[in-house]
Prior knowledge:
Layout: H1 2-25, E1 34-35, H2 37-44, H3 48-60, E2 64-67, E3 71-74, H4 79-103, H5 106-126, H6 131-155, H7 159-169, H8 176-181, H9 185-203, H10 207-235
Antiparallel strand pairs: 1-3, 2-3
Amino acid sequence: MAQARTQEQxxxxxxxxxxxxxxxxxxxxxxxxxxxxxxxxxEYGVSRTPVRExxxxxxxxxxxxxxxxxxxxxxxxxxxDIAQAFEVRGVLEGHAALLAARNIxxxxxxVLHGTDALFQEAAExxxxxxxxxxxxARHIWxxxxxxxxxxxxxxxxxxxxxxxxxxxHHRIPxxxxxxxxxxxxxxxxxxxxxxxxxxxxxxxxxxxTARDLTIEHSRRAQELIVMRTRDQTSSS
Length: 236
């Protein structure tokens, strides 16, 4: 029974970590804001113990800094951390794409092709440049992007690779790539084309091209994020 309780506690902490990460990435919890243990415990209907452990894990990931008697403050990873995380993630996801080109089935290919239309829809919707249109474009893009990359990683058939990539995702706020794209229609269309080329290479069973395109895709995202972050830092 003790082991079962420990597993349940670990799952609870992990779910809080994942949800807080999503909320930070989505901008629901802003960079620089404070996370109070008491408030989070009330929101999730749990004691402060799993919340405290979740915040410690987020601190280890470089997402928050814990300040005595104040709580945990959300911090943005340094440019070096972001660049290095994207570099490693690109290599890992590139290998996942190579394996997916070897192992993927028709069902997964259909899912990938379905995201092509969603990426294009997000780009077209962003063209309206209204607050509502951009919010809808963002939602569609997030849906397509998550489905696209998850499908490839799972299709690789390598669980250890999947776990390694997931750990890296936790080091980068989820909304950074969208923020870097900035609702720019041209950038969104380029992004859609990059995804489509990766899908085509995987469908053609062209393992090396799928890998190389995925690595380049990650490098491009890294460049945009670093450039946008520098611009925001210099203007603040």
